[in-house]
């Protein structure tokens, strides 16, 4: 059974040894959700609460271990992130996705995300991920989804 919960400080080292927590230590308020299969971290999703492209919470940095993909973990992480966003009183969230990542975009659209009223964003140059420089050349489209109110 998969359990999804926020990443605790004491779990960072163990989770970081198997999952690429690329946004850990970034700027702004954020939450990492981790999918656990027993004691094994099998995936994660990052929720940026501030400093986002569209001005409301953005789901970012989804990752599922390659041997665990296509088992519904990405869907469960997305839905858990949406619940967290709604629980914090937000009525909408967004996801940025590379134009070349057709599989992820299909998943998000199946879950109700639609293109935002914003032009795609080209990202070119060197960015810092976990303190290391990474060269990128990508174009990101933004999808949004209204969220149902939580009781």
Can you offer a commentary on this structure?
With 151 residues, the protein is α+β, with helices and mostly antiparallel strands. It has one domain (2-146): 3-Layer(aba) Sandwich (Aminopeptidase). 19% of the residues lie in helices and 41% in strands. It is built from 3 helices and 8 strands; from the N terminus they run βαβββαβαβββ. Strands 1, 2, 3, 4, 5, 6, 7 and 8 form an 8-stranded mixed beta sheet that branches. Helix 2 links the parallel strand 4 and strand 5 (92-98). It is globular.
Attribute tags:
151 residues, alpha+beta, Aminopeptidase, eight-stranded mixed beta sheet, 8 strands, 41% strand, globular
What is the molecular shape? globular
Q: Report on the biggest sheet.
A: 8 strands, mixed
Please compute the radius of gyration using only Cα atoms: 15 Å
Report the sheet-strand fraction. 35-45%
Q: Helices and strands, in N-to-C order? A: EHEEEHEHEEE
Helix- and strand-based class?
A: alpha+beta
The CATH topology turns out to be: Aminopeptidase
Distance between the termini: 25 Å
Poorly predicted sequence stretches spanning 5 or more consecutive residues: none
CATH architecture descriptor text: 3-Layer(aba) Sandwich
- What is the CATH C level class, in words? Alpha Beta
The name of the CATH superfamily reads Gcn5-related N-acetyltransferase (GNAT)
**How many individual β-strands?**
8
Task: Give the overall pLDDT as a whole number.
Answer: 91
Number of domains: 1
The percentage helix is 10-25%
User: Number of DSSP helices?
Assistant: 3
């Amino acid at each position: 059974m998969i359990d999804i919960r926020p990443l605790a400080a004491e779990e960072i080292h163990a989770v970081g040894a198997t999952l690429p927590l690329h946004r850990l230590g970034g700027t702004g308020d954020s939450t990492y959700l981790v999918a656990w299969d027993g004691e094994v971290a099998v995936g994660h999703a990052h929720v940026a609460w501030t400093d986002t492209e569209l001005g409301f919470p953005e789901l970012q940095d989804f990752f599922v271990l390659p041997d665990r993909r296509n088992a519904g973990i990405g869907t469960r992480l997305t839905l858990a992130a949406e619940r967290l966003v709604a629980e914090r009183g937000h009525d909408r969230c967004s996801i940025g996705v590379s134009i070349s990542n057709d599989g992820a975009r299909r998943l998000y659209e199946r879950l109700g995300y639609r293109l935002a009223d914003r032009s795609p964003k080209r990202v070119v140059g060197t960015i810092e991920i976990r303190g290391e420089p990474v060269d990128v050349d990508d174009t990101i489209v933004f999808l949004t989804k209204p969220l149902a109110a939580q009781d």
